[in-house]
Amino acid sequence: MPHTVAGQWRFLTAFPFVSSPLVIVVKYRVAATGNLVEYTKVQAVQSQGIILIGCGELLKEAGSKPPAIEGQMTIPRVVVFLFFCAVIGWGQQLDPAAQPRTIPLWENGAPGALGNEERDKPALTVYPVWIANQRGRAISGAGVIIAPGGGYSGLAMNHEGRQVANFLNSLGVTAFVLRYRLGPRYHHPIELGDAQRAIRMVRAQAKEFGVSPDRVGMMGFSAGGHLTSTAGTHFDAGDPQAADPIDRVSSRPDFIILGYPVISFTAPYAHKGSAKNLLGDNPDPKLLEDLSNELRVTAQTPPAFLFTTSGDTTVPAENSVAFYLALHKAGVPAEMHIFEKGQHGLGLGLGDPALSEWPKLLENWLRARGLLARN
User: Fold this and answer.
1) What total of structural domains would you count in the chain?
2) What is the DSSP string of 271-324?
3) Residues 61 and 124 in one domain
4) pTM of the entire structure?
5) How many CB atoms lie within 10 A of CB 143?
6) Which of 68, 138, 185, 234 is deepest in the core (most CB within 10 A)?
7) Is the dihedral of CA 62, 63, 69, 75 positive or negative?
8) What is the CATH number of the domain that holds 56?
9) What domain range includes position 51?
10) Contact (Cβ atoms closer than 8 angstroms) between residue 192 and residue 234
11) Which of 50, 83, 116 delimits the end of a domain?
């Protein structure tokens, strides 16, 4: 029988994955509208075996009892509470401005746009950190722009976008999911221009977003990993004379995170579908070489974290290995993890005790680089 929680939500089901990080997927129905919503929380706060799950990712360490909890579902060794967002008198008040919101990269239309549909309007969806310190800044001050994969012809906005943003929020990192333009409608350099604009925007408006301008990273999966590695190897310092203040700042990400990325367009293991969608049917060989990013690494390439699997036959691990070796040769700090098993497009690796370790490894890397420390 469904549980009614705080008179607002009808509790349907919860699925705990006993892994690291802890992931709980909750499906609930809004009583007023009947809408079914799936809510994923990664690395929920745990205290003495109690996990508190709140609407919109509000987490509060156990220690004071939330009011008006009318229902609960007991799962072995875990008690999951689902409660109404607008809790009054318990913990922090929610700031309506902290809701995810989508903003266009260009207010008056993107350069090179071929129409006025959503696919012609690159944008960032901002996932702010809910719990802020007294100065109103995100806990870590770090921000990460996420480029979902999809072979440059689609975008995996859920498992390589929203879920990853939720995970980063749990670390105190503000996340920005990038909707970039795609082939075959758009070709290079449009996609790179969208990524560079996103980096400049977050950096130029760092105070508004609650991040530090020197802690702006980029993260990408699959073809989004190619876009991220391209941004990390093709950047400029900005134009100080530009009329648009956003164009005056650097497009170099301060760090990059690559998940099973496409890297090379010239090697035998290149992902030809991504190359075709990005560059068209008969690309210039020089352009293929320029966008084989293992060939474009320099000492100025930002520090990198990479993960992939030996079992990935879509985008073989050789892509990551080649990029890592180039980083190592150039003296760029880098860390790489190759898991034995796992198919392409694994996202957070939910439910797999081995693959679900990579977010924890990333957390350790970010912490070691001082990116999760309060500033």
Assistant:
1) 2
2) -HHHHHHHH-SS--HHHHHHT-GGGS--TTSPPEEEEEETT-SSS-THHHHHHH
3) no
4) 0.78
5) 30
6) 138
7) positive
8) 2.30.30
9) 3-83
10) yes
11) 83
